[in-house]
Amino acid sequence: MASLYSLCLSKQQLFGILLILTFFSSSSAKRCYRSIISFGDSLADTGNWVILLQQNKPTPAFPPFGGTYFNRPTGRCCDGRLIVDFFAQKLGLPLVPPYFRDANCSNCRKFQKGVNFAVVGATALDNAYLARKGIINELTNVSLGVQLGLLKTLLPSLCSSSSGKYLQMLLFLPNNQKCTIAFNYMGQTGQEFINSCNEFLNNSLILMGEIGGNEFNLAFIQGISSEVIGGLVPEVIKAISAAIEELIELGAMTFVVPGTIPLGCLPVLLTRFRTSNKQAYDRYGCLIWLNDFAHYYNEYLKKELESMRRLHPRINIIYADYYQASMPLYLSPRSFGFKSTLTACCGGEGPYNVNVTLSCGDPGTKSCDDPSSYVNWDGAHFTDEAHRVISNGLLDGSCTIPRFEFPSCAS
Q: Residue span of the signal peptide, if any (predicted)?
């Protein structure tokens, strides 16, 4: 169940040795992890997008991005840290480095305590599939499937095992050939493979995003019909669950799977869909229909994850409720020290400080003096301080299903 060999077997015929090894190599939920493996989009990207666009660097490569915590731009779409950074700090791990900083693996061992494949604009579904639905993504083609493939390529270098070449070969073979090789490869190298790669992934925390939100943001902005958008929901969630299944087969044991945030409270979408109809807004100024959609998506995702838990009772599949963890910022902002909830700290003009033709950092935009008093950074992303509040609700288990309190492993 938690190794590559199980790809050769039916669910009713599990390989006894592997079951035993998996059972004893997995530890209790409340433990310190050795590594964070992160997938996702701009809510999790710690620098990949900026690295990929070296010839035409985007605005997160320049001030005022990064000014609050790092005192320099890092490629994050924020004035400081992201949720993945707060997870790393809580778990006593280094901030998770972007994969494309060393995609040629000149020193892959530096990824043994964490690696981030998230890229700004990434989607759960491939761009070609989205294009057939009329949705065009010009930001990146590094979808969830591509990110998963990058991990598979990197994994042999992370296992600290001389069997790395064997693993790399096995990962990309058809299933029927996997079976033949796996059953004929139970010597010392096979044992070494199990102990190293299985242990590495057993002790890694897998952050599955946030991923999938860009499909819908693009669809809304590009005027795609509600029927097409509604049909995308099960497809996006299917892509996420399929990726989790693959990672379980590779040996991963603990997943954090975020839902989407309150879309109706984002300044960029409030600007795009501004209306004179007061009934379209809730008492906090958020667009009701967008938040209703986010709620619908999250409920669908929660049901899928519950089904997966029943299939994999030994695997920790944790729903991270980004929506509920975010809502206190809008319901009682002053209790957290926020003065502005729906206005971007860094932007252009208008009631939400957003100019849809300009990005934070472009000429003609300006940044607020105190980002810590703002919930939103650039119209589409939270500030460092907002991420801190959201992360607290996730890390203490109050906004996770099932409740999962992460241990403090920082020295």
A: 1-29
